[in-house]
Target: Adenylosuccinate synthetase
Amino acid sequence: MPGIVLIGAQWGDEGKGKATDLIGTKVDYVARFNGGNNAGHSVVVGNESYALHLLPSGIINPHLTPVIGNGVVVDPEVLFQEIDGLEARGIDCSHLLVSEAAHIIAPYHRTLDKVTERFLGKHKIGTTGRGIGPAYADKINRVGIRVHDLFNEQHLHDKVEASLHQKNQMLVKLYNRRPIDVDQTTEELLKLGERLKPYVANTGLILNKALDEGKTVLFEGAQATMLDVDHGTYPFVTSSNPTAGGACTGTGVGPTKITRVIGVSKAYVTRVGEGPFPTELFDESGEWLRTQGHEFGVTTGRPRRCGWFDAVVNRYASQVNGLTDIVLTKLDVLTGLDEIPICVAYDVDGERYDDMPTDQAAFSAAKPIYETMPGWSEDISNCHSFDELPATCQAYVKRLEELSNCRISAIGTGPQRDHIISVHSLID
Ligand code: GDP
Ligand code: IMO
Ligand code: MG
Model:
């Protein structure tokens, strides 16, 4: 009953979409367990490139069943746009399963996301503006709308009324906005529910049965360890648990069914939005990484902040997620550098930290302590085994592995499906 969790080990955009697609050829189910359409996962197959936001990246593989678990927040309008876009390109989405317990992102969540960010001013988080935070806030406040609520008009009306009661007061009195109409919102949601109904299922039961029958389930994380609401750089985080534990709560599968936890890491680091980032580069090296790595957001198009590999972050990700394997991506981007710095520890006001400081004030003050490795100039995109990599490149990977407390099982050498070096099998 292989249950494989795949998560981001840094601040997102590590290449989870590509890694999921790669493993997806060998699995029966791919289940998203957290986040919503704040994610942007790219998959490149031949000349075709897909940008997925809400659908599991595995949907590109026709033989597997894609699942949206209960831990995901679903914006039905976005879901249908994404399904229509893929079906127009010949990708069948009819076998998609959506948990009846997943929470809905309603139009008022998107409105609230934008006005609260504006209101926060210089304290803003830099969210994707997709309504993610407000939808999860409603879930925790117990005024959320769940998928199964969309199928009963009276029940839905009551829920929307309860949810909008306080929000309308806030919108009018605090944000100087018009109130949102309960009847109209209920009607819109009912219509969306009609289209959603054929996809809705008891996904927790289906995934558990599949695992009991010996089928393979891949749990695809969105966002990443450092954006986790509990374990990340709070408050500059997303509002869900992208760490491995989230795969259980976000799908209804118990931890004893998880056999593998794969962390995806870039060979350097990027971050989108606000918040501390110790190895961030503000000079031409940062610009060089952004250009070489095409580091612009898949969801918002924002330029990604770039920095050198941070081993403290990766060690922390190994610990928090219980990683069994790392997929190291975008190693090819570093080709052409004479030397490559690696952050091995932090200096916080003269004190050395080998482990992640728990105090966010300390993390914000952390200065990277670097060690430097020699670079390589050879094109590595056609290397298909570890031994084919230039010696200095091998040494860089080995050092990252040592510093990360976890073996590196696959290495990305380009965006295409076959731009990958397999060191250890990711599935068995
Ligand atoms: P995700 O959010 O973790 O799925 O990552 P994104 O799709 O947002 O960003 C990763 C980007 O890197 C995408 O454009 C991928 O096509 C690309 N990519 C993934 N792996 C590699 C790699 O090994 N080398 C290169 N050059 N690009 C890669
Ligand atoms: P993938 O799955 C990178 C960031 C936003 C912001 C913070 C909170 O593609 O790796 P939110 O809209 O979630 O409330 O924004 O989290 N963020 C991401 N950064 N990759 C992502 O997803 C992200 N999803 C959210 O930029 O800083
Ligand atoms: Mg992304």
